[in-house]
Please model this.
Amino acid sequence: MIEEYFINEDTLLLIPKDKKTTKIFDINGEYIIKKNIFTVVEESCQYYGSTYNGRYVSAKKTLDMDYKLPIIIDEVKEVVLFPTCSPKLSKCIWICVNNVENYSKSKKNSIIKFINGKNCEVDVTINILENQILRATLLLMKLKKRKNNPKKIG
Model:
């Protein structure tokens, strides 16, 4: 069990084990932290200079949507996470879109293949997963566009 973890470019996904514990899948291994999943996400936003609420409001304005929003965790390294359902639900899984290589349908769920070759089955339909990946990719694309072409004042 680890005491601290900040989401980064090596993060694959976060899965709630229970209300107080999160399982973290990382390129370098799997970890368990005695913090709820939302706390890990919030503390990671704070570590990189914002809050979850600030990231949420930004994504809402950027995407002109207001539910199941992806969020930018780290603007510099362009790390973007998306939820599989409402973040308010205890079963919500957070996935780092940067490290998704491919995905496919299983019987009722979806299988995500990550860039390190690891596969993970998640309890979400392929349509929902694909929609969330598209949203997260759009947010990432808009972030990159803004960084490369900042608006000028005046």
